[in-house]
Please model this.
Amino acid sequence: MSFGGHQGGFNMGPTSVQANAEAGLPFAQLPEGFLEQIDEVLGREPNHPEPDVMFSHSAWDRRPFTLRSFLGPHAPWLLMALLLVVVETGLQNLGPLLTQVAIDHGVMAANTGVLVAACLGYVGSIGLASGASFLRLRFTGRLGERLVYELRVRVFSHFQRQSLDFFTEEKAGVLMTRMTSDIEALTVLFQEGLVNFAVQAMTLVVITVYLLILNPTLALVCLVVVIPVNVVFTLWFRRVSRVGYLRVRDRIADVLADLSESLAGIRIIAAFNRQGHSTARHDRIVGAHYEANLYTGRAQALFGPGTEAIGIAAQAAILLVGGRMVLRGDLSIGEITAFLLFLTSFFAPIQGLVQLYNQYQQGSAAVTKLRGVLSTEPTVAEDPTATDLPLIDGHIRLDGVTFGYDPDHLVLREVDLEILPGEVMAVVGPTGAGKSTIAKLITRFYDPTFGHVLIDHRDLRGTRLSSLRNQIGVVPQEPFLFNGTIRDNVSFARPDATEGEVLEACRAVGLDDLLERLPAGVDTPIHERGSSLSAGERQLLALARAFLARPRVLVLDEATSNLDLLSESQIERALDTVLEGRTALIIAHRLATAMRADRIAVVESGRVVELGSHDELVDLGGRYASMYETWMTHAEPDPGTL
Ligand code: ADP
Model:
């Protein structure tokens, strides 16, 4: 997008100055010079295309998430990095060999030419090694970023695919941890760890080869001291740190879960004076995280210095054995010097590997946790043979529907219900009767345990979720407003809606008063979750959102929040506009709303106990009639409490 148009750039249409002027937009009034400056800045900015996002409910990578399966597709790049590592390590470790040549054939043989050549070779090899190192770092840095990017998108789209029960069962904070802290633990591994691991391992191999060439006996002494002890020690650390790091990941998830819950509930915490209590709870949870970290810290503290001690012991052994070989004349001074120099660089990678192993263990704990999340299948799975729902008339039928969130506790039992195209059906009944559950089944947030939900005589199980949700609008009891402007929120379901359409939707539900009062009209930002709006205004905004989406079927959970009389009548008027010509299911909390519906279903303990129009049900003299009677005689009607 361009404010002033880029001649010869990527914007080949009319300049936006012209376009704005034609549309009568305020930017047309900006001074020309200023626009040119903006254009210049935008011309220098990279052109970020719309990301090409693929999202599917049914087709995605279902292989268990392991480092190997994740890195597999990038194998050529990793191999390339590895090749650079081999070159780099080989060159870096030429030093001690050249030192040996310089001492034995230069210094001892009093040959200046060899000495100078060895030194120049030394400098040259370091220069080349640095060049290879630079290339390798650029290469792996980019690859690491790419891997993390892919992983973040993969985890996020997996969350988007999940059914509602996933979010009920998993704490939001735990999911946040998977997205943030766990992926960060892996970032370190991808960006530095894996290739450093290769660098260090390669260094070890290269030095071992050099050592064996230099003096096989001494090399074997060194390996016999180092390898068995190190292997035992590493096995111990592996076992201990695995348990420890998994615990750390769980505890950090607890900390973030508690944090996000406390922040979301801060108003209630303050209102009920429970700050002390929540601080104490957080203290306990953070304490557990601290303990878990101390445990892994202790293991690291033993492992690091332990391997270092083994290295020093090996050096002492070499000095003893090698020194005696020099005395006997079996080894030159140059050779023992090179050997000792090699040993120092032999232990540096072991120390490096120890640290990396630690990093690897942390990363692999994160992989285990991510695998758990990525392997959850959505409970409302889209059948691979599912087809798109054609444009619907809005005929809804529940056919012998039995359902329980938990199979042992049925919430709906054998419910049969039919809503005709264009009909408005109100559902009333006591709290917990199963009204919202009926709504969730129609929008296919859950599938019935037994029975079928049909729209236009087609079972929802065989239809694509996106084609269903495109045609069903939902207005929840507490509408969720996103951080953004009023326009963003109203056009949420149809981001391509024009300003005129957004304004029309706002006007249709009676939001024009509010827009006039607001400083920037539809472009006024609303604070997070709409806390700067009243309950009535939030409800109207949700209705405007539904109006703009123009769904054939509307499922509406009426707000229970106490609205003032003015808001109530405004919402009723808005409802009339939004519901016109649509099939609707309204979970009514006020009898005034129920009375206006074409038919009313009374739900009790998961069954539809009465069904008919207001007049029919009053004549029937059953549950509804008694609710109505209570309402007529009391000032505060609330069918939910009956
Ligand atoms: P209503 O809308 O009539 O007040 P609901 O349909 O919301 O009732 O709930 C019916 C029953 O299902 C209640 O007992 C409620 O506790 C239970 N329930 C609702 N949602 C869930 C859920 N996500 N997990 C488990 N039980 C639930």
Observations:
- The chain has three domains: 67-374, 395-471+552-560+580-636, 473-550.
- The domain at 473-550 is CATH 3.40.50.300 (Rossmann fold).
